[in-house]
Amino acid sequence: MWQGLDIFLAVVEQGSFSKAAQALDVSTSHVSRQIQQLEQRLGTLLLQRTTRSINLTDAGKHYAAKLKLIQQELSDANDQLLGGQQIPKGHIRITGAGDFVANTVAPVIAEFCLQYPEVTVEIDFNNRNVDLVEDGFDLAIRFGRMRDSSLIARKLTPRPMTLAASPRYLDAHSAPTHPHELAQHNCLLAANNRWRFIIDGEIEEVKINGNWRTNHPHALLQACLQGLGISHLARDIVEPHLTSGALISLLDEFQVTDNASWLVYPRKDLMPYRVRLLIDFLLDRFHST
C-alpha cells in the first residue's frame, strides 16, 4: 500500500526523476519503475512525462496534496512520541502580499524564528489567490473581508479603509460630499471598480471609474499624492500623509470598518504543531498591541 509513495513525493518536490533519485540515493530507473507501479496500482496517471519536463496531472496534484498531509501527520505523531512537540522544528510556508506583511508581520515572524531556531520559514510575496493545500502553503496572510470558505480565518488586526485625495487634486475638482458623487471623479482602482460605503444605514457598493489601475497599494498611493485622483486605501497606509497634510481624507462618515488583515489556514486538526504555535504567536502579538 505504501510502496512508492515516498518516491512519488520526492519527484514532486525535486521536479525530476534524476534529482529525486539523487536525493534518495537510488537509481533513476528505480524511481521510474516505482512511479509506474504506483500508477498501475491506482489506475491513473499521476505525472505527465516529456523529454524535457515532468508535470503533475490533476489527479497527481490532488494525490500529492493528500499525501503531504498524511506525511505531516506521521511526522507529528513521531515527534509527539519522542517528546519533539515541546521543541517545534521543520519548515513553514507562508503566502502574503503588500508592505504591511513585509514591514509589520514579517518582523514578528522573524522574532518567532529567533525564539524557535529549529523552525525554518519561507514567505512568498504575491497577489495570487493561491490554493493553500495544492500549492503547499501552511498559512496565508490576506487583506480585506473574508467570505465563507472551507478555510479558517482569524482576524490578525483591523485595517479600515480611508478615501483620500491630495490638495492639488481637490484644487482642480470639488471634494465629493456623498459617495454617489464619486462617479464624477477620477478614482484610482485596485482589485475592482466597486467601493463599499454605509449609506442610509446600509452597506452599498458604489461603482467607480478612473484611468489608473494597479494591484500595488503604494503605486496607488503615489498616484494619489501626485494629484491624479482619489484613492481608497487602508488607513495605516495613508495615515502619515494625512498627518503631514499631503493628503486629505474624504467621506469619513460613510466608511465601513470591517476590513482587516487575516490569518487563513486549512483545518487546524491537520496542522503541524509549529504552524499552530506561529499562529498563536502572531495573534498574541497583534492582539496585545
Automatic annotation (TrEMBL):
GO MF annotation terms: DNA-binding transcription factor activity; sequence-specific DNA binding
InterPro entries: LysR-type_TF_proteobact-type, LysR_HTH_N, LysR_subst-bd, WH-like_DNA-bd_sf, WH_DNA-bd_sf
One GO BP annotation of this record: DNA-templated transcription
Keywords: DNA-binding, Transcription, Transcription regulation
Keyword hit for Transmembrane: no
Boundaries of every HTH lysR-type domain copy: 1-57
PROSITE patterns: HTH_LYSR (PS50931)
Family indicated by similarity: Belongs to the LysR transcriptional regulatory family.
Protein name: Transcriptional regulator
Organism lineage: Bacteria, Pseudomonadati, Pseudomonadota, Gammaproteobacteria, Alteromonadales
